[in-house]
Amino acid sequence: MTRILIVEDEEHLATGLKFNLEAEGYAAEVEDSGEKALARLTSEPNGVDLVLLDVMLPGLDGFEVVRRLREAGRFVPVMMLTARGQAEDILKGFELGADDYLPKPFDLSILYARIESLLRRQAWLRRPSGAALEGAAEGRAADAKDAGPAEYAFGQITLDFTRQLLVRRGYEQSLTLMEATLLRYLVRHEGRPVSRKALLEEVWGVRQDTDTRTIDNFVARLRRYIEDEPSKPRHLQTVRGVGYRFVKAPE
User: CA-to-CA distance for 219 and 147, rounded, in angstroms?
Assistant: First the structure.
């Protein structure tokens, strides 16, 4: 049974979410502060499968919780829930390590779909090459039939998608679910230009107008992990006017 931690300080909202998630077959628990949630998530790294994290928490807000969680090496999938739906807030959440973002108010059916999408994405990431995703979302089912390698090496870098780990010259860099998924998608399309629109739709499942700077910021961070000179990338190349291309062995 999937275990979900709800981090919400408004009791009526937390209680309603818990009730509805349990009615859908999830095991749900609640923490009412960022401090309590962070303490639990860092002390019990395998205690939950997914976190629903409100941004507007008293004391330690959701942005700070996800930042500290990632800095502590905890990479449980995190979906941020907030009434703040401005593009800059969404970008900030993603940049700090969130895996999805759902503005309030939201329809419960949308919440359930996004939860399942995150869980599928994590399962897909950890499956061996050629594995198909059962019940994949429409529009991504065919793509999931070739999920790509569980491990991939190029240059002096090894990507271990099962452990969400990048190893470069003996140094290990943990990856968030979003970082690992984005890298795996680019690796699977090695040598081919991939548009920002395709990345938004295929990696994040976003099919409405979204600021593509989100993709640019993620790629910039991945370049710091991978490239000898991030300002002169050789592996994660920019395709002007289109998006990006991964090149395994640049000339």
Answer: 20
